[in-house]
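Okay, can you check this protein?
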Amino acid sequence: MAGDTDRGEPTQNGNPHQLTKKQHVLPKASIERFADSDGFVKCCFVEDGSIKRLRPSAEVFCASRVWDQRSEAGADTKRIETAFQTLARSIESGQLQTLDASAYQVATSFFALIVEREHVRRERPAAVSLPGRTGHNLSLDERERYEAMGVIVPENDGSIGSRAAAGIRIMGRGLWAKRSDWANWRWGIIRSLDVEFIVPDVIGPQKCIPISPKLLLAAENDDCETSGHGVDEYNRVARAEAERYYFAKRLDS
């Protein structure tokens, strides 16, 4: 299981090809909408109950080079993230009060992406041996250059390394298979009238995407407003599902 102290494969000195080393499971832009006026979120650590004020860029919110650059910042994943952040801003501003079929697809694609990132963060895929494949003699600089271009780069022994295998899983199970399985999901906008939503490190089980302290999307739900008990129940389950931490704008509301 990948944890906070796990370190991914280092880049060469200076990281000349600008490969992402701190990979957010939930995008930084999503965490930022829960930040206070100073740019911090309140994060509670499950192990000991301690609470810290953290920037959205903090390492705890990131995996350390678990997947490859193609699945981190390739055209498909960036299109999904950009479309969802545009959707989230429209909901938060009040411009969008309910979702249509195209917005359902945006939400489902984003949810599939972060769920599969959750999976590979928790358990990094093993390298895959490919019988009959011979190795190559690429230098580290050459391998990093190809990776930055979105190429799946085999290891020098011809195997598919852990990061490339994680990227294939994210792209295959996350962006293709899960989107197909969940193609008919409808998403409702849930608005809290008072109590704030928390965000666990494991989002998948509740089939919800927190947008901001008082907004979230829920799969297979109608739009609704809720308060008190409704939000408390979501937060109770979110805390129970959290493995390492959960965060919110405030944790005293």
Notes: Confidence is low (pLDDT under 50) at residues 1-5. Helices lie at 28-32, 69-73, 75-92, 101-122, 140-148, 162-181, 229-241.
